[in-house]
Design a protein that fits this description.
The chain is α+β, with helices and mostly antiparallel strands. It folds into two domains: about 190 residues, Beta Barrel (Thrombin, subunit H); about 90 residues, Pdz3 Domain. About 15% of the residues lie in helices and about 35% in strands. The longest helix has 11 residues.
Length: about 300
Amino acid sequence: MSPIDHQELPETIRGLAERVGPSVVGINNRGCGVVVADGLVITNTHNLGGEEAVVTFGDGRQVEASLAGADIDGDLALLRVDTAGSPVFEEAEADVQLGDVVFALSRPGGRSLRVTTGTVSSVDRAFRGPRGSRITGGVEHTAPLPRGSSGGPIVDAGGRLVGINTHRVDSGFYLALPTGQDFRRFVERAAAGEVATRRSLGIAVVPPAAARRMRVAVGLPPVEAPLIRALDESGPAARAGLRRGDQILRAGDVAITTVDDLQQVLADAGSSLSLRILRGTDEIDVLVDFDATEASVGEA
């Protein structure tokens, strides 16, 4: 990105408000969204209360929208709505870099447009999604934003989309989900009606450090790995024969040393996943079939 001349900054901001401001919308009086195609608006899933939403455009028009597709753990949702010819954001070709100047736009709850500027303060940041999953690749920037700005865009000086504001950090900075290949793939799949689902074992776990202390307390050798503290009796893990107290040592070819390790494997898992678990002092290999409907104990 080219540097911004401070003397040109006011004109740049006014130009962005005029050109791309109409493509920034309010969502449900709680967040923002961005027109990414004719009839399609992207926002964060945490801005939605269900499969329907009210979208407020800059001219005050309020339209009911329906959910085209969503990735709850990735905190992205695509809405179908009559955009009435609103301009469509063009995506930036290059990824933003540390120090780049960016502009943040928001229309919190459909109110007046806000445009602020800042710099990219960090890249490849990780943060937690709505259900605690780890989201990676976040872009941190210093453009100040009011509450209710999540789902709105950050753009370069040309108004090209570089990210979707998603999460406020303690320092007051904002984290945005970057555009790029994964972003485009989500929009394409969601527009086709595919709802992204990440595999779930149907378990609740104790973090590795706490699991280690629990083992020591009952006289077992210390092992740091996630420990199953509860199961959904109809879930994949229970169907495969896993039990409370089991520890997950490996998933596929990955050694599981943190809960994030397990979540990352599940995000990429297919229809089945081999697990090595520790039950007391015995290591057991188990095959989890995510698509099975009946209980079965599988050997990996």
